[in-house]
Amino acid sequence: SQQGEEDPQALSIQEGENATMNCSYKTSINNLQWYRQNSGRGLVHLILIRSNEREKHSGRLRVTLDTSKKSSSLLITASRAADTASYFCATDDNDTGGFKTIFGAGTRLFVKA
Amino acid sequence: DAGITQSPRYKITETGRQVTLMCHQTWSHSYMFWYRQDLGHGLRLIYYSAAADITDKGEVPDGYVVSRSKTENFPLTLESATRSQTSVYFCASKGTGWETQYFGPGTRLLVL
Questions:
Q1: Beta bridge partners of B54
Q2: Backbone angles phi, psi at A9, to 5 degrees
Q3: Opening angle at CA B110, ends B44 and B76, nearest 5
Protein backbone atom coordinates (compact mmCIF):
# COMPACT_ATOMS: atom_id res chain seq x y z
CA SER A 1 0.00 0.00 0.00
CA GLN A 2 1.03 3.60 -0.45
CA GLN A 3 3.17 5.22 2.22
CA GLY A 4 1.24 8.44 1.89
CA GLU A 5 -2.51 8.27 1.63
CA GLU A 6 -4.53 11.38 0.94
CA ASP A 7 -7.99 12.15 2.17
CA PRO A 8 -10.41 13.00 0.67
CA GLN A 9 -9.93 11.41 -2.72
CA ALA A 10 -11.88 14.25 -4.33
CA LEU A 11 -12.99 17.68 -3.18
CA SER A 12 -15.24 20.23 -4.87
CA ILE A 13 -15.49 23.78 -3.50
CA GLN A 14 -16.49 27.28 -4.58
CA GLU A 15 -13.92 29.88 -5.48
CA GLY A 16 -12.90 31.84 -2.41
CA GLU A 17 -13.41 28.95 0.00
CA ASN A 18 -10.59 27.16 1.76
CA ALA A 19 -9.55 23.64 0.77
CA THR A 20 -8.06 21.18 3.24
CA MET A 21 -6.43 17.92 2.25
CA ASN A 22 -5.00 15.36 4.62
CA CYS A 23 -2.23 12.83 4.30
CA SER A 24 -1.31 9.87 6.47
CA TYR A 25 1.87 7.85 6.31
CA LYS A 26 3.19 4.71 7.95
CA THR A 27 6.91 4.88 8.67
CA SER A 28 9.40 7.36 10.10
CA ILE A 29 10.23 10.20 7.77
CA ASN A 30 12.86 12.84 7.25
CA ASN A 31 10.50 15.17 5.46
CA LEU A 32 7.11 15.30 3.78
CA GLN A 33 6.39 17.05 0.52
CA TRP A 34 3.29 18.22 -1.27
CA TYR A 35 3.05 18.31 -5.05
CA ARG A 36 0.43 19.57 -7.47
CA GLN A 37 -0.42 18.06 -10.83
CA ASN A 38 -2.48 19.87 -13.40
CA SER A 39 -4.35 17.68 -15.84
CA GLY A 40 -1.99 16.13 -18.38
CA ARG A 41 1.12 17.62 -16.81
CA GLY A 42 3.97 16.49 -14.59
CA LEU A 43 4.05 17.04 -10.85
CA VAL A 44 5.20 20.38 -9.49
CA HIS A 45 6.66 20.72 -6.03
CA LEU A 46 4.70 23.00 -3.69
CA ILE A 47 6.23 22.77 -0.26
CA LEU A 48 8.51 20.61 1.87
CA ILE A 49 8.18 20.30 5.64
CA ARG A 50 10.89 18.62 7.68
CA SER A 51 10.18 16.17 10.46
CA ASN A 52 11.23 18.68 13.13
CA GLU A 53 8.83 21.33 11.82
CA ARG A 54 5.15 21.54 12.75
CA GLU A 55 3.87 24.17 10.37
CA LYS A 56 5.02 25.88 7.23
CA HIS A 57 3.55 28.60 5.04
CA SER A 58 4.06 29.51 1.42
CA GLY A 59 1.75 32.16 -0.01
CA ARG A 60 -1.80 30.80 0.26
CA LEU A 61 -0.54 27.37 1.31
CA ARG A 62 -0.27 26.18 4.87
CA VAL A 63 1.11 22.76 5.71
CA THR A 64 1.07 21.11 9.11
CA LEU A 65 2.87 17.99 10.22
CA ASP A 66 2.08 15.83 13.22
CA THR A 67 4.73 13.13 13.46
CA SER A 68 3.06 11.55 16.51
CA LYS A 69 -0.04 10.87 14.41
CA LYS A 70 1.95 10.34 11.21
CA SER A 71 -0.22 12.83 9.40
CA SER A 72 -0.01 16.09 7.49
CA SER A 73 -2.52 18.54 6.12
CA LEU A 74 -2.41 21.01 3.24
CA LEU A 75 -4.63 24.07 3.46
CA ILE A 76 -5.19 26.28 0.44
CA THR A 77 -6.81 29.53 1.47
CA ALA A 78 -9.04 31.70 -0.72
CA SER A 79 -9.04 29.12 -3.48
CA ARG A 80 -9.11 30.07 -7.15
CA ALA A 81 -10.28 28.22 -10.23
CA ALA A 82 -6.60 27.88 -11.18
CA ASP A 83 -6.06 25.75 -8.06
CA THR A 84 -8.05 22.97 -9.73
CA ALA A 85 -5.59 20.09 -9.84
CA SER A 86 -4.58 16.88 -8.11
CA TYR A 87 -2.51 17.20 -4.96
CA PHE A 88 -0.12 14.53 -3.75
CA CYS A 89 1.77 14.08 -0.55
CA ALA A 90 5.09 12.28 -0.65
CA THR A 91 7.54 11.02 1.92
CA ASP A 92 11.20 10.19 1.59
CA ASP A 93 12.05 6.65 2.58
CA ASN A 94 14.36 6.80 5.60
CA ASP A 95 15.59 3.28 4.92
CA THR A 96 17.26 4.45 1.71
CA GLY A 97 18.58 7.73 3.10
CA GLY A 98 15.81 9.66 1.41
CA PHE A 99 16.74 8.18 -1.90
CA LYS A 100 13.28 6.95 -2.72
CA THR A 101 10.15 9.07 -2.49
CA ILE A 102 6.81 7.40 -2.00
CA PHE A 103 3.68 9.13 -3.30
CA GLY A 104 0.10 8.79 -2.23
CA ALA A 105 -2.82 8.36 -4.63
CA GLY A 106 -3.69 12.05 -4.48
CA THR A 107 -6.65 14.32 -3.82
CA ARG A 108 -8.45 15.76 -6.82
CA LEU A 109 -9.51 19.34 -6.10
CA PHE A 110 -12.09 21.10 -8.24
CA VAL A 111 -12.66 24.80 -7.62
CA LYS A 112 -15.82 26.17 -9.16
CA ALA A 113 -15.77 29.74 -10.42
CA ASP B 1 16.82 24.51 -22.50
CA ALA B 2 17.52 23.77 -18.86
CA GLY B 3 15.32 21.27 -17.08
CA ILE B 4 14.09 17.76 -17.52
CA THR B 5 12.64 16.57 -20.79
CA GLN B 6 11.00 13.40 -21.97
CA SER B 7 10.54 11.99 -25.44
CA PRO B 8 8.38 11.04 -27.09
CA ARG B 9 5.44 12.80 -25.43
CA TYR B 10 2.98 10.37 -27.00
CA LYS B 11 3.53 6.86 -28.27
CA ILE B 12 1.28 4.18 -29.69
CA THR B 13 2.72 0.72 -30.08
CA GLU B 14 1.63 -2.87 -30.42
CA THR B 15 1.87 -5.77 -28.02
CA GLY B 16 5.24 -7.46 -28.19
CA ARG B 17 7.18 -4.52 -29.59
CA GLN B 18 10.15 -2.97 -27.86
CA VAL B 19 9.73 0.66 -26.83
CA THR B 20 12.25 3.07 -25.34
CA LEU B 21 11.24 6.20 -23.48
CA MET B 22 13.91 8.85 -23.14
CA CYS B 23 14.63 11.15 -20.22
CA HIS B 24 17.22 13.92 -20.17
CA GLN B 25 18.08 16.42 -17.42
CA THR B 26 20.46 19.37 -17.58
CA TRP B 27 21.09 19.92 -13.85
CA SER B 28 23.63 17.11 -13.39
CA HIS B 29 21.37 15.68 -10.71
CA SER B 30 22.67 12.45 -9.26
CA TYR B 31 19.31 10.79 -8.74
CA MET B 32 16.83 9.91 -11.45
CA PHE B 33 13.54 8.05 -11.32
CA TRP B 34 10.92 6.49 -13.53
CA TYR B 35 7.30 6.35 -12.40
CA ARG B 36 4.12 5.20 -14.01
CA GLN B 37 0.80 6.80 -13.20
CA ASP B 38 -2.46 4.92 -13.52
CA LEU B 39 -5.92 5.80 -12.29
CA GLY B 40 -6.42 4.55 -8.78
CA HIS B 41 -2.74 3.86 -8.18
CA GLY B 42 -1.15 7.27 -8.04
CA LEU B 43 2.53 7.25 -8.90
CA ARG B 44 4.40 3.97 -8.71
CA LEU B 45 8.18 3.79 -8.87
CA ILE B 46 9.52 1.55 -11.63
CA TYR B 47 13.29 2.05 -11.38
CA TYR B 48 15.66 4.57 -9.88
CA SER B 49 19.31 5.47 -10.21
CA ALA B 50 21.71 7.05 -7.73
CA ALA B 51 24.40 7.85 -10.28
CA ALA B 52 25.75 6.76 -13.65
CA ASP B 53 25.89 2.97 -13.85
CA ILE B 54 23.95 2.54 -10.58
CA THR B 55 20.33 1.49 -10.92
CA ASP B 56 17.86 -0.38 -8.76
CA LYS B 57 14.33 -1.72 -8.90
CA GLY B 58 11.37 0.14 -7.54
CA GLU B 59 7.88 -1.06 -6.78
CA VAL B 60 6.86 -2.31 -10.26
CA PRO B 61 9.99 -3.18 -12.30
CA ASP B 62 8.79 -6.28 -14.17
CA GLY B 63 8.85 -5.88 -17.94
CA TYR B 64 11.10 -2.80 -17.83
CA VAL B 65 14.81 -2.26 -18.28
CA VAL B 66 16.84 0.88 -17.55
CA SER B 67 20.38 2.05 -18.11
CA ARG B 68 22.38 5.06 -17.00
CA SER B 69 25.59 5.33 -18.96
CA LYS B 70 25.59 9.14 -18.63
CA THR B 71 24.46 11.20 -15.65
CA GLU B 72 22.04 13.26 -17.73
CA ASN B 73 20.19 10.42 -19.46
CA PHE B 74 18.00 7.68 -18.03
CA PRO B 75 16.17 5.72 -20.75
CA LEU B 76 13.40 3.27 -19.90
CA THR B 77 12.85 0.30 -22.20
CA LEU B 78 9.82 -1.93 -22.41
CA GLU B 79 11.36 -5.07 -23.82
CA SER B 80 8.11 -6.61 -25.06
CA ALA B 81 5.22 -4.24 -24.52
CA THR B 82 1.99 -5.51 -22.99
CA ARG B 83 -1.42 -3.84 -22.75
CA SER B 84 -1.02 -3.56 -19.00
CA GLN B 85 1.88 -1.19 -19.65
CA THR B 86 -0.47 1.38 -21.15
CA SER B 87 0.09 4.29 -18.81
CA VAL B 88 1.56 7.75 -18.36
CA TYR B 89 5.26 7.58 -17.59
CA PHE B 90 7.07 10.28 -15.66
CA CYS B 91 10.77 10.77 -15.27
CA ALA B 92 12.11 12.77 -12.31
CA SER B 93 15.44 13.85 -10.89
CA LYS B 94 16.87 15.30 -7.70
CA GLY B 95 20.24 16.40 -6.51
CA THR B 96 20.54 14.64 -3.18
CA GLY B 97 18.56 12.20 -1.09
CA TRP B 98 16.53 14.73 0.84
CA GLU B 99 15.75 17.25 -1.87
CA THR B 100 12.70 17.95 -3.96
CA GLN B 101 12.13 15.94 -7.10
CA TYR B 102 11.68 17.67 -10.43
CA PHE B 103 9.39 16.00 -12.91
CA GLY B 104 9.37 15.82 -16.66
CA PRO B 105 6.16 16.46 -18.64
CA GLY B 106 5.38 12.77 -19.04
CA THR B 107 5.00 10.29 -21.89
CA ARG B 108 1.57 8.88 -22.67
CA LEU B 109 1.99 5.32 -23.90
CA LEU B 110 -0.77 3.27 -25.47
CA VAL B 111 -0.14 -0.41 -26.14
CA LEU B 112 -2.63 -1.96 -28.55
A1: B51
A2: -75, -35
A3: 50
Would the CB atoms of A88 and B43 count as touching at under 8 Å? yes
Contact A75, A65 (CB under 8 A): no
A→B interface, C-beta within 8 Å: 2, 30-31, 33, 40-45, 48, 88, 90, 92, 96-106
d(CA A106, CA B37): 11
- B47 reaches A (C-beta below 8 A): no
> A44: which chain B residues are within 8 Å (Cβ-Cβ)?
103
Q: What are chain B's domains?
A: 4-76+83-111 (2.60.40.10)
If phi > 0 it is left, if psi is from -120 to 50 it is alpha, else beta; for residue A25 that is: beta
- Residue A2 has a pLDDT of 40
Question: pLDDT tens digits for B18-68?
Answer: 999 999 999 989 999 999 999 877 889 999 999 999 999 988 999 999 999
Task: Provide the CATH topology of domain A5-112.
Answer: Immunoglobulin-like (2.60.40)
Q: Which H or E run includes B52?
A: none
Query: What residue of B is the nearest CA neighbor of A97?
Result: B97
